[in-house]
Specification:
The protein has about 290 residues and is an alpha/beta fold. The chain has one domain: Rossmann fold, CATH 3.40.50. It contains eleven helices and eight strands. Strands 1-2-4-3-5-6-7-8 form an eight-stranded mixed β-sheet, sandwiched between helices. Strand 1 and strand 2 form a beta hairpin. Helix 5 runs antiparallel to helix 8 and helix 6 crosses helix 7.
Amino acid sequence: MKRITSVSLMLLILIVLMIAGANLAHTASQSVTVNKVKINYIEQGEGDEVLVFVHGYNGSLGNWKSVLEFLPKEYHAYALDQRGHGQSDKPGSYQLTEFVEDIYAFSQELGIEKFIYVGHSLGGKIGYQFALDHPEVLKAMVLAAPAPAHDFIPTEQRAGFIGMVTSAFGSPEGIRAFFGQTANPPSEKLLNELINDAMMADPTAKEECATWWIGTNLEPQLKDIRVPTLIVAGAKDDLPVEWERRYANEIKGCRFEVLEDSDHYFPMESPQKFVDLLTSFIVDVTKQ
């Protein structure tokens, strides 16, 4: 009897280790080449609902790790490093349309017919353009603290603003100083993650992304988006919640939610709250 129990225990341990190994392998970093650029990504879950997570300015796929930990495994999720960021290639060209076409090509290369786009910050502005250019592959779109859709810096001040941003994000000290001036600075843990991500980003990407981030006006086209959309804002974000509410009102049928006591980085610091909104929205969309 003892031998049977011992053998059973060994088999149980082996099965657990095999499952753990499979899970680790499933979430290990992978890469695919699209538009001559190697895109680094991770994948988890095996459900029918496919989600593609897109990070923001100077970010990486690591920005979504907390969200992915709370995301139910019945959702098939991908998170990618965009060109010029994280472990993806740095080709030296970073226009808005290139980011859009990378994500589209990524979905096609992996055989994803339709998916739910989830973008944070600059990934939100990319999402607006993606929904306009490739609505046929989108089942829905969720934008967390999306970057402004309109061109919010006067033309004569843009060069100075771009110089300030790229300079600030050029060194760990500059990044600390930049966030130290915000109304709700990130936690020390998150700040260190943001610094590591920014230092991996191509300096050219920092400049070019900042240029179209502040100088591209997509607001007049928001009325043409026909994809079910959820916009989530943080009540304590330095970006005005009123802007995001305005964008939501311009997108037909868009749902708008505000997370109280949350700032710009709520997907990282309040992942459970965000996942709750995300999954509730997906359930409602798939019922339609």
